[in-house]
């Protein structure tokens, strides 16, 4: 929405009267302060050095009026203090040094805004050295030099200097200076991955700037705070803050910060597939950047729009837009910024070519990949590698595409899941999946089924994001199933369903086109019916249809023990309940099922946790009903834990208000088994933000995220059971909902995880869990124990317990 109409921005003549200057400071405090520091005192310095006493006197008087006007209304006092330092200079030499210092400061500011960081550092350093008689001048120069150091890749020096300035800044007489010190420090902390501290710095800066009525700067800190909130996983808060920032900044139609905010919100629209919103934002960004006039901002806005148009035009003439952009690059003074701009233009041109005239010249993409690699920036290198892989796939260079995709996958696996651009990481994972799918189909067209299987395996391993990116070499993989088990691997690529069986080293493929829309509709209908306990006859018909599509053609190759590897939309299928109408059996009656995210995970081995390690049992944590109003307490979960607790010797039981995340994290490292009977909320789009919901404690809302779980070390953990969960799996992600917490727990060292596919009825979960733990205590085999428990309900004679709704929602993943 257009949240605010652009205002007519003010101007003040250099010969303004005292009354006009005072009114200007009252109406436009930010502009008055910046005008005084960056132009009026600059012109005063020039006049002093030129020996023009009359002009120097007039400029100093104007700066004095502006400073007094700001200070009189409780605003920033640094301009008034700078004038006082000049008035108090002991002699003409001291005045000249201050004149040189103010000229250097203004030059440094201009270079900073123009992204010419090397010049900015030099000028600001000179301002500090020459301006020792003016403490406020020295501190303002240091605040911007601290930011410049970071852009010059001197992160430690930048952090150290800005930390010192934050500690020294006095919010009484110098609130704007204190705010800018915290603002710049927050940005450094954000780029260093210290999101919580960055958030705190931005909040303090915003409060100070709001008090000063510096509207544009408040909007700018809104943008920064929104980015910090997004990095912390608080997407709703981030969206709200960014919209507030846009509301304020749209009153400044040429603002650099308006461009930055619109550009970032446009990027978020790309990730969220909001095409119409992105189109509007890209067009607005171009208009803002053109009004601003900065070459870098114009290039950034235009290349973002080209990338958008390339995606949506699908053959439209976009590459003609790119040519004029390349002529702007030489106009950028800073060599580092110029190199970045050149490669942004190259990538925009590649996108235009891929979706328009044809594959771009590989030499152009080679240059971009080499540049981003030299900058050690994986967030730009990965998309560049993916773009080159896409170009190579279009040219049917499968081996070259494999090399690029493997390189991108390795980088993705190394990325911490809590990087600032988490959404960007998700977008890269999604694109990686599509490219591996394309590679697999190309390999199938070449009749190289083993390499097609290897391509899909690489994509799965990339999505998991744990450990090395892919075990396979670029030329293929020697696939071997676990001893005594058959691997059943699925992938839905467009309208094609690929189903592989792997028995020993024998790999066989069944390729069908079942009708994508019908298959996905049946999967969704089955999930909804089983979750809601719908008509059993209707559900059985759909379960029978799924058996025909997913199992019938491979059933003769399945042994008693099957490892299912299924990504994308196939993963949520309730495999245990697939119904064979010919023999009247559910799949679980004839096969023991184990699930894995990839073949690599299916064959993984590791030391089993100690059988004597204590159990940790969590029963219905007393979570905040105000914070999570849509979730209810689970009374049957308490009875469930009470029932299974009798089977353990000295278990740790956390319940109600005592079941906090701190208590659970403290108990887990020494535990051999965790049974969690409470709410677990899954986010398939951002698996690291899935969480176990526990009781709140000081400074903790009760969410124990997958990201935090993955950072734990659980060397003794044999089994985790996530029971009576409120699961919210997505339908489009490559993990199909069975990622996030499961992947984090397995990565932290757990040997196996039992989790649910949908919202389970905690009343029906109780008998299943009791039967499961009884069987598991006997043989310590998670997959076998779950099957035994499911069969016990199926054959119980109780119609409600025998329904797949009661037992088919749980599955075992792990070793």
Would you give an account of this structure?
The chain has 815 residues and is of the alpha/beta class. Residues 1-8, 416-421, 465-477 and 726-738 have low confidence and may be disordered. Helices cover 58% and strands 10% of the residues. The two termini are 51 Å apart. The radius of gyration is 31 Å and the shape is elongated.
Largest sheet features = 6 strands, mixed
Radius of gyration (Å): 31 Å
Strand order of the largest sheet: 9-8-10-14-15-16
How many strands?
16
Global mean pLDDT: 84
**Which secondary-structure class do the elements indicate?**
alpha/beta
How many helical stretches? 34
Helix content: 55-70%
Low-confidence stretches: 1-8, 416-421, 465-477, 726-738
Question: What's the quick description here?
Answer:
The protein has 815 residues and is an alpha/beta fold. Helices cover 58% and strands 10% of the residues. Residues 1-8, 416-421, 465-477 and 726-738 have low confidence and may be disordered.
How does the SSE layout of this entry go?
Layout: H1 18-27, H2 29-50, H3 53-72, H4 78-87, H5 92-113, H6 117-130, H7 135-151, H8 155-168, H9 175-191, H10 195-212, H11 215-231, H12 235-249, H13 256-271, H14 275-292, H15 295-313, H16 319-326, H17 335-354, H18 362-374, H19 378-394, H20 398-414, H21 422-445, H22 449-464, E1 486-493, E2 496-503, E3 506-512, H23 516-532, H24 536-550, E4 561-566, E5 579-580, E6 585-586, H25 587-590, E7 592-596, H26 599-602, E8 615-621, H27 635-645, E9 652-656, H28 661-667, E10 673-677, E11 680-681, E12 691-693, E13 703-705, H29 706-710, E14 719-723, H30 741-748, E15 752-756, H31 762-779, H32 782-794, H33 799-802, H34 804-807, E16 810-814
Parallel strand pairs: 1-4, 4-7, 8-9, 8-10, 10-14, 14-15
Antiparallel strand pairs: 1-2, 2-3, 5-6, 11-12, 12-13, 15-16
Helix pairs in contact: 1-2, 1-3, 2-3, 2-5, 3-4, 5-6, 5-7, 6-7, 7-8, 7-9, 8-9, 9-10, 10-11, 11-12, 11-13, 12-13, 13-14, 13-15, 14-15, 15-16, 15-17, 16-17, 17-18, 17-19, 18-19, 19-20, 19-21, 20-21, 20-22, 21-22, 23-24, 27-31, 31-32
